[in-house]
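In this section we walk through a basic example: taking a raw amino acid sequence and producing a predicted 3D structure, encoded as discrete structure tokens. The instruction is simple. Fold the sequence below.
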Amino acid sequence: MRALHPSPLNAAAFALFGDVIETRGAARTINDGHALRFHDLAALDLDADGGRGVVSIFRSTPPAYPFTIKTMERHPKSSQAFVPLSGRPFLVVVAPAGVFDAGLVEAFVAGPHQGVNLHKGVWHHFNLALEAPSEFLVIDRDAPDENTDEAALTAPLLLYAPGQA
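The resulting token sequence is shown next.
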């Protein structure tokens, strides 16, 4: 079983999989100087085949770590964004779009003020909270057709929490 140790999330390391949603770049002053707007932080892709963007909240309970990863999923018709609301870090497990290759799975630790937008077709594991149950704002596609493919790993991966051996 391959061990998977997450690395810190940053825009350059995550670019193959999607966008890091965080305050970065130039901001505009708005609301009579009482707020800064960090604009257009993710390339949302939600309208294929009559789909529409929806906003949901997911509440995720952390599993026991190390955690065995047995399946991955992808959304071939849309992106999917996760933004933490509970002020806690979380884990993001991904593999490149295309034919699933378990050898290319990577794990990232998203900080409590970082979200991710997974690009269309990127393989990922379901949301993995750390520390305590956590809520996430989720922006994804809603449509009457199916938009999820799953791949079972022939050799499961053992995912460690940050700081575990």
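Looking at the output, two observations stand out. The first helix runs from residue 11 to 14. The mean pLDDT is 95. In the next section we compare this with other chains.
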